[in-house]
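Progress against Task 2.4 (sequence-to-structure conversion) is shown through the following example record, which the project officer requested during the mid-term review.
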Amino acid sequence: MRNQEKTVSVVIPTYNCREILRDCLESVRSQTHRPVELIVVDSCSTDGTRELAEQYATVLSFGGNAAHTTINARPFKQNWAHTKATGDYLYWFDSDMRMKPDTIERCVHALESENADAVIVPEESYGEGFWAQCRRLEKACYNRNPLSLTDAARFLKLSVWNELGGFDTTLGSTQDYDLQLRLNDAGYKTVKLSDCILHYEGRLSLKKHLRKKFIYGTSAMRYFRKYKSRDGLLSRQFAVVRPDFLSARDLLAREPFVAAGMISMKIMEYTAAFLGLLYSQVHKEDLQAYVGEGVAHS
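Structure tokens generated for the chain above:
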């Protein structure tokens, strides 16, 4: 399976995540594939995140104020960081994720053996507390589907990334879904691994989780407007009871209490996102305000 010639650039955005970052970085360091270029792009952390990352990676700084640490600023941050990547392949990763030792090797093999351009790597969620268990079950339902509407490639050829122009920065938190749709529209081939990475939810706080969904909602209208002409896409992609849940009824039946909590959490998520959408329409939030001249530096 091994192809040890192609360089893979792994880009990890960070902000005040020292407590969970070491496990993430160690998982990248332990990859069976070589060579790997590891780039951490940090938004002026104050908890020692940068100092820890410097033990493992090239660390770049992004941002000069609190606005540059928000969720909706991520596509700006990622687009800029990816201009620094020099590998043949690009993998954007999060600080709360952990790779298995052969994850990158499997991604490279999938691209080359199937003549593909991008790879979807499923996420196996884990953590402490009831709400983390709800997220675990939700992700398990998505992973059952060979190509779920929630899937979006994070591993792809750098040349393809450059051809597409990176993330659409007007979309905020929906940039992943948008990039996948643009990959599809441009005729690029995407494959999905059968194996998962690990996504650590910690002790999931419902309040913080819903706050994040509220922020997601503030940029949702741009995505809706962009894809409103796609027949049935939005209704299927953002349904409370998704097709993935229906096709994984046996998983839900095994854990009825957790399944009920999962559906309740989805309803609360959409409520929070809808409130965020209303807020954005009242305040006419402009995503371009998140970045300006000279906010990024090495």
